[in-house]
Task: inverse folding
């Protein structure tokens, strides 16, 4: 018995001293960047795409083909003797404690010079705490929770806008629509999955709605694991909102759309907070029933007029990942790696303090990115305040950018035609 | 019964503690220390589950609620009230014990799977409750404020956490060894062996199970406090959700239900597979670690259903019987 | 006033249909328990496998209703295989062996699904029965009606099988008294295998019909299965009629709870109802003993 346990303990200790699978035999000077992603667990599907995206960015930096993007085609980091960057991936499993462990492994064993990750807000929270403790820069390309940059951290940098900003985008859109098309919207229903993502989004929406004097006639949290949404939809219908603001994952978004159709829930518009609504499965499953839905997006292939690199990178990404087009998550993660590489290069050093200073001095004009943002420039809290979302509408079973009007490709259709008339 | 000094279990425990202390101070590798901490926490959780589900025979799939009591006690104490998390130990324990009594009193009348489903129901109710209460953080949970020092129960290094976890583990094991030797343990064994006979002799099932349940809840709650102070993030899905309860149950059962060393061995297997392998293979993102963990559990269940430790005990007994028979 | 009645009617109909869906999933589970005293915790994963199978057949051009008999037969044999290779061994061990053995199966199957099929969501293209039917002020999807009919047919067929066929009688004998059944010459091992196979076949039917309304992904089984366990326990382990009654009750409670209380706590009345029922009747609504 004793022997069994002692052997077990010894095995664990021995096992963990084994070198990780990622150390390569032929090593040039390499700059290691740790990436924490949900590669298993409920966000695994997104995680896989993010990994492919980051690897694409790694190859862009290390490669020699130039694109109108920071560091693309630089053949490594020029200021560091063209040393290649190398991404070391660790699986957070979507769990905050595992993300923490992954961050620690990457920092202490792999000796990464910076971290990037971790998609879900709860894993980003704990992983960035570790980075803060060790004094390693942490770049967050795609977490939405509005509070992440308000923790007084020095090492945390977020390129993506958060749900607070996205929420303001919705209302800016509504205000613009009022000016342009004289729509009349007073009553809102906020529907959201009751986890971290949905709650953060809904709270931000409620706060902003109140600021602009809208009336919230229904606030409906629901469990994302539910298999039916009858009561939720009846409540929405009973409240007679003008616009429904909805935050859902894919399975529940499908349930809602089906129920809206079946119960003839006619509203002026359905405004979704990406996630399930931009998942390829949404359009694939619903076909023409998805038409007229608006969704906040982070990215669109339509911005290619201004962002010349978009179609090129989209092509490259499709080749790598099941012919899937570039989307908001993957585009942001590509930019995240590029921004980090750019900062390390400008720092001319792998010292954390130097990288941090370089990050603080980041200033990339929007056209030289994949995003519809004006710039990438961090404020004192580490948040890029020059980002914003765009609004798309599904028209003829395609996602069309319709806001900001400056980058729109089509006229929005408002209000949504009644379900019975489609 | 052997004297305490000669009891094999006690000697093993002391041996492990010595190794543990050396490891805490000697091992520099952060990843190994993290695995050690997780191992100890899960060993404690599995052991606490073992009291009611192993010795008690009532298989619970809702044990995470007690773990959550401690975790949330620590989170609320530090994030909301700014007091020392050491208060979370008695506070969490009190809430956990009361919860255990409230839940156990009506449900111990249920047999077998009805009890198990009831624990799932209770777990879901608790999780829903927390998710709807703003002062409990709803779905957002709590990020614990960064602090340092013994009084704040937070450290920049890992070894203090491992030592504290080791201490808790020692308490859990000692308590379990004590349980086996005590009257409570005797009664629980009698109830499990032959419920009807035990009841007819006057053993009050409910009373003894409630005591065991409350004790197990307090233990789990203590683990929760340490976990919260280590991870610095508490939310319903990482502390109260059904998957957590299932993880705890699997730890208890893989090692061997109703034995002193079952849960620690189960925790070893769990940490090894679910954490260590995930860290190494996890980059592939294909769920291979789940396949391996699942296959292992299936194999153990098929070949040695009494768990690893249970099988070892059986083997030892057989050998002793052969020896005594002069063979 | 009229509107409140309309809403009530809609909630009732939708609740019953949701309940029938739960019954569809739950019915296979309760039979296995009745005969073998085994709760198959991997039941949800069997459902998931059936859904993937139905999806695969749909890609080959076989719509769910056509694919149904194929999936049912395949799942029947799958159940027999799982029984022979694995469940049989669990039965020889201590009572908790079946609990953690089937849990291990759950983890293994989910891991395999993720490894083989990725975490992507797959839906049947051009699903049949996508129209909405209107009955006065109540609207229901055609697919939900098909699923509901399927549930009733399945429950009825299973009930008839258990009550009126010879094998069914043998199964009932085993579930009532294993030793006596052996003495009567019934091959208990074979009956166990048959029961497990039938349980899997039922869930095969459920999975195929579910593909009319839901996507399949590695975790899809978990959500349905959880409610199925509560339903089976509520109705009484081992009772097919109990599963149906329990399911209808759960469906209605969930929907009414969601509307008249709050959507966030719509499962609360379900769990409370379960606790209240078993505390008053520890064997569930229609369970034995």
Result:
């Amino acid at each position: 018995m004793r022997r069994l346990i002692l052997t077990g303990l010894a095995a664990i200790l021995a096992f963990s001293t084994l070198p990780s699978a990622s150390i390569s035999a032929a090593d040039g000077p390499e700059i290691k960047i740790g990436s924490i992603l949900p590669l298993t667990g409920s966000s695994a599907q997104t995680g896989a795409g993010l990994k492919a995206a980051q690897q694409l960015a790694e190859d862009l930096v290390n490669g020699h083909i130039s694109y109108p993007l920071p560091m693309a085609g630089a053949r490594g980091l020029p200021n560091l003797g063209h040393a290649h960057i190398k991404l070391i991936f660790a699986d957070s499993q979507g769990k905050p404690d595992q993300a923490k462990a992954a961050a620690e492994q990457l920092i202490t064993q792999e000796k990464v010079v910076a971290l990037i990750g971790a998609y879900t807000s709860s894993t980003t929270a704990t992983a960035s705490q570790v980075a803060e403790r060790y004094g390693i820069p942490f770049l967050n390309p795609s977490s939405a929770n509005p509070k992440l940059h308000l923790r007084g951290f020095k090492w945390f940098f977020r390129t993506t806008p958060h749900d607070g900003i996205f929420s303001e985008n919705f209302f800016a859109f509504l205000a613009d629509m009022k000016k342009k098309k004289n729509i009349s919207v007073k009553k809102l229903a906020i529907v959201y999955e009751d986890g971290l993502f949905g709650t953060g989004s809904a709270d931000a929406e409620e706060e902003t709605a109140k600021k602009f004097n809208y009336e919230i006639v229904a606030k409906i949290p629901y469990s994302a694991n539910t298999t039916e949404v009858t009561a939720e939809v009846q409540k929405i219908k009973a409240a007679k909102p003008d616009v429904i603001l909805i935050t859902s994952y894919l399975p529940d978004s499908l349930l809602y759309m089906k129920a809206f159709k079946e119960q003839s829930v006619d509203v002026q518009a359905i405004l979704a907070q990406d996630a399930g609504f931009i998942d390829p499965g949404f359009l694939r499953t619903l076909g023409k029933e998805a038409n007229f839905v608006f969704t906040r997006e982070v990215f669109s292939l339509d911005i290619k007029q201004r962002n010349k690199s978009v179609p090129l990178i989209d092509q490259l990404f499709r080749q790598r990942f099941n012919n899937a087009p570039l989307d908001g998550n993957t585009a942001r993660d590509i930019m995240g790696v590029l921004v980090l590489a750019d900062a390390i290069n400008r720092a001319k050093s792998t010292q954390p303090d130097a990288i941090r200073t370089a990050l603080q001095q980041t200033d990339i004009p929007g056209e030289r990115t994949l995003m519809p943002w004006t710039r990438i420039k961090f404020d004192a809290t580490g948040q890029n305040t020059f980002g914003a979302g765009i609004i798309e509408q599904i028209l003829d079973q395609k996602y069309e950018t319709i806001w900001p009007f400056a980058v729109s490709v089509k006229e929005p259709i408002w209000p949504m035609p009644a379900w019975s008339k489609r | 019964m052997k004297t305490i000094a000669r009891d094999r279990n006690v000697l093993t425990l002391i041996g492990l503690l010595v190794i543990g202390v050396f490891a805490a101070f000697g091992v520099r590798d952060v990843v190994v220390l993290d695995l050690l901490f997780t191992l100890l926490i899960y060993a404690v959780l599995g052991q606490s589950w073992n009291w009611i589900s192993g010795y008690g025979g009532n298989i619970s799939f809702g044990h995470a609620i007690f773990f959550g009591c401690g975790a949330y006690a620590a989170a609320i104490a530090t994030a909301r009230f700014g007091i020392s998390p050491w208060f979370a130990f008695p506070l969490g324990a009190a809430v956990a014990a009361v919860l255990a009594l409230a839940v156990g009193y009506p449900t111990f009348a249920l047999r077998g799977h009805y009890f198990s489903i009831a624990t799932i129901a209770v777990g879901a109710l608790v999780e829903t409750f927390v998710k709807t209460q703003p002062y409990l953080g709803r779905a957002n949970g709590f990020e614990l404020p960064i602090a340092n020092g013994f009084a704040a129960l937070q450290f920049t290094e890992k070894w203090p956490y491992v030592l504290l976890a080791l201490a808790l583990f020692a308490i859990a094991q000692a308590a379990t060894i004590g349980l086996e030797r005590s009257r409570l343990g005797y009664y629980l064994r009698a109830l499990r062996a032959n419920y009807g006979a035990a009841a007819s002799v006057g053993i009050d099932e409910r009373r003894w199970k409630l005591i065991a349940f409350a004790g197990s809840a307090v233990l789990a709650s203590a683990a929760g406090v340490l976990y919260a102070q280590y991870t610095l993030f508490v939310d319903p899905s990482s502390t109260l959700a059904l998957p957590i309860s299932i993880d705890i149950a699997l730890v208890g059962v893989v090692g061997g239900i109703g034995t002193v060393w079952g849960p620690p061995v189960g925790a070893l297997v769990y940490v090894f597979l679910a954490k260590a392998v995930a860290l190494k293979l996890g980059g592939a993102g294909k769920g291979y670690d789940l396949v391996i963990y699942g296959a292992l559990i299936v194999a153990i269940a098929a070949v040695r259903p009494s768990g690893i430790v249970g099988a070892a005990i059986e083997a030892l007994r057989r050998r002793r019987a052969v020896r005594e028979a002069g063979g | 006033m009229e509107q409140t009645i309309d809403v009530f009617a809609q909630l009732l109909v939708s609740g019953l249909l949701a309940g029938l869906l739960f019954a569809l999933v739950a019915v296979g589970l309760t039979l296995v328990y009745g005969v073998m005293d085994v709760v198959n915790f991997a039941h949800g994963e069997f459902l998931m496998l059936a859904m993937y199978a139905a999806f695969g057949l749909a890609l080959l051009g076989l719509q769910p209703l056509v694919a149904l008999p194929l999936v049912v037969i395949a799942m029947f044999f799958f159940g027999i295989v799982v029984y022979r290779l694995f469940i049989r061994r669990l039965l020889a061990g201590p009572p908790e062996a079946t609990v953690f053995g089937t849990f291990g199966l759950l983890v293994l199957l989910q891991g395999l699904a993720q490894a083989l099929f990725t975490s992507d969501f797959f839906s049947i293209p051009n699903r049949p029965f996508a129209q909405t039917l209107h009955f006065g002020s109540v609207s229901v999807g055609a697919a939900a009606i098909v699923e509901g009919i399927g549930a009733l047919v399945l429950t009825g067929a299973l009930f008839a099988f258990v009550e009126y066929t010879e094998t069914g009688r043998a199964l009932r004998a085993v579930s009532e008294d294993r030793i006596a059944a052996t003495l009567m010459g019934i091959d208990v091992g074979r009956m166990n295998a048959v029961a497990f196979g039938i349980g899997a076949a039922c869930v095969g039917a459920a999975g195929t019909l579910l593909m009319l309304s839901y996507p399949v992904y590695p975790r899809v089984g978990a959500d349905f299965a959880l409610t199925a366990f509560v339903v089976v326990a509520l109705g009484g382990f081992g009772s097919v009629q109990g599963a149906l009654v329990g399911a209808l009750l759960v469906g209605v409670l969930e929907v009414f709870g969601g509307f008249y209380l709050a959507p966030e706590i719509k499962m609360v009345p379900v769990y409370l109802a379960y606790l209240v029922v078993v505390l008053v009747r520890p064997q569930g609504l229609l369970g034995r003993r």
